[in-house]
Amino acid sequence: MSAVKKNILSGEAWVYGDNVDTDVIIPARYLSTSDPAELHPHCMEDIDASFAGSVRPCDVIVAGNNFGCGSSREHAPIAIKASGISCVIAGSFARIFFRNAINIGLPILECPEAAVPGAVSKGDRIEVDLSTGRIVDRTNGRHFAANPIPEFLERLFAAGGLVTYVRERLESAS
Questions:
Q1: What is the pLDDT of residue 1?
Q2: What CATH number should be reported for the domain holding residue 29?
């Protein structure tokens, strides 16, 4: 069973390698919409046909280096978030994907140690503490350390993304 507690995420791992580009995260043939409900069924289909039908809320993607490379489409993190993924952990992210993920409220952590092939296996139970950057593979007992998410980003993620976060801040200031 997957769970979300304050700043602690827990779910099964979906593991991918290096250079997962936005074209395999959400193929260009589906870019006529940015509706998350329409993007979700096609998320990862060109790299993992089983993903959209099997992913569960709170699951975690663990990938190698340069995750989200390719075009700068916002559709890629939207599709991942819509699929129920609670966090993406990778050795590194393409800079535009990194920014887009934050903007839409998808937590991402850079952790080269967790991204090493074999460090985490598909289906492993992963627990992520966003506040401390602590990542635990409950299946194999390995522990990894990423940089913690700054408090303001925790609030942004809790709000659901940048637009909602800014709207809430503006409303509370008036």
A1: 42
A2: 3.20.19.10
Angle at 109 between CA 54 and CA 69, to 5 degrees: 75
| Residue 49 · residue 77 · CB < 8 Å | no
CB 24 within 8 A of CB 43: no
pLDDT in tens, 25-52: 999 999 999 999 999 999 999 999 999 9
What is the span of the domain harbouring residue 161?
3-173
Rounded Cα–Cα distance for residues 140 and 32 (Å): 41
Tens digit of pLDDT for each residue in 71-112?
878 999 999 999 999 999 999 999 999 999 999 999 999 999
Tell me the whole-structure pTM to 2 decimals. Answer: 0.92
- Say if CB 26 and CB 79 are below 8 A apart: yes
Rounded to whole angstroms, how far apart are CA atoms 95 and 76? 13
Count of structural domains within the chain: 1
Rounded to whole angstroms, the Cα distance separating 99 from 161 reads 11
